[in-house]
Amino acid sequence: MPIVITILQLITCIVLIAVVLLQSGKTEGISGVISGGADTFLSRNKAKTLDAKLAKATKWIAIVFVVLTLALNIF
Known about the structure:
By secondary structure, this protein is mainly alpha-helical. It has a domain at about 1-20 and about 45-75. The protein is built from four helices and no strands. The N and C termini lie close together (about 10 Å).
């Protein structure tokens, strides 16, 4: 059983690294401070973008990784 969990954790780890690397950077510099109000107005459909989907996938894959780590620690 620990071997199966270890293999699943390794696969989850590789997928998590790939999803994090596919996300774009969040640093906007000084332009983000100046145009902060326009950014929230123009980004109504932000939940449908690729970055939003990758962020949601990152959360779920990280949760699975943590659960697998705890399960591996118990066994």
